[in-house]
Specification:
This protein is an alpha/beta fold. The chain has eight helices and 14 strands. The chain is 26% helix and 23% strand. A hairpin with a 2-residue loop joins strand 1 and strand 2.
């Protein structure tokens, strides 16, 4: 999905093609992508601009970084499981020093590719960590396997008491949610299913606003067209997740982490569907 990207402009022709693509897709279309907006998977370790690593909880870290040709940014979440192994959700290539720091924290054991569009660094991570197992939603397996072999789908992921993966209802199993339990409470990690991006400047910002992709927490119009098969099922699943006891934060695939009134905010996202 054309939702990963950098803060650099991709130009009016590419923007126009994105808009045409959205308009031409029917809501019951099969899983597709916009080739112009989705970067090809990297064949080499390519570090793009990113923010510092942030510790969200004792077992949870976040990195937000750029991608080429789109104004949006992507988020990697690293989870330290109870046995010390690491789960990396939407892996992002970092400098060697930061990767060594991550390795000192734990051994990367699971590389989660959260849908068929967020594949940029998954192959090079598998090359760097050949023993790690690649995990993706079952409905996205075909797209992910265009760039790297998949070992497990979400329904077969062997989590523990602190971490689990589940498909989101109503999305043809192309996406899911990562649940992380920490000392301070529960974190829900989404991908393209939930955005929290403010309105952006420039031509691309105007287009993203028209596409309904910016302006705060939401399921975007693009996501509804491209992936949502059963809006009611997704609404009810998000409402159920919003009622998760001790929910303290929601991490969207793009945009700011939601910590203030996380449960009420996620419930409002569900209600707006």
């Amino acid at each position: 999905m054309p939702v990963e990207g950098s803060r650099h402009a991709c130009g009016a022709p590419a923007v126009a093609q994105i808009v045409r693509g959205v308009r031409e897709r029917a809501q019951d279309a099969p899983l597709v992508q916009y080739d112009v907006a989705v970067p090809k998977a990297n064949a080499t370790w390519n570090v793009l601009p990113h923010d510092p690593v942030i510790e969200l909880a004792s077992n949870l870290r976040q990195v937000t970084g750029d991608l080429p040709n789109m104004p949006l940014r992507r988020t990697m979440i690293a989870v330290r499981m109870q046995d010390g192994r690491l789960l990396l959700h939407n892996p992002i290539a970092l400098e060697d020093e930061l990767m060594r720091e991550l390795e000192r924290w734990g051994t990367p054991a699971f590389l989660v590719v959260p849908n068929g569009w967020h594949r940029l660094d998954c192959a090079v991570f598998k090359q760097r960590y050949p023993e790690a197992r690649v995990v993706c939603p079952s409905g996205s397996r075909k797209k992910v396997e265009e760039v790297t072999a998949v070992d497990l789908t979400y329904d077969a992921f062997p989590g523990d008491e602190s971490v689990s993966l589940a498909h989101l209802s109503g999305l043809r199993e192309v996406e899911g949610v990562l649940t992380v339990r920490s000392e301070d409470g529960v974190t829900l990690v989404f991908n393209d299913a939930v955005f929290n991006v403010p309105h952006l400047p420039g031509l691309q910002g105007v287009v993203m606003r028209l596409l309904g992709s910016t302006g705060g927490p939401r399921v975007t119009r693009v996501m509804r067209i491209m992936a949502v098969k059963d809006k009611g099922a997704l609404r009810e699943h998000l409402r159920a997740l919003a009622s998760t006891p001790a929910l303290v934060r929601v991490v969207p695939g793009h945009g700011h982490v939601i910590t203030r009134d996380a449960a009420a905010t996620l419930g409002a996202v569900a209600g707006a569907l």
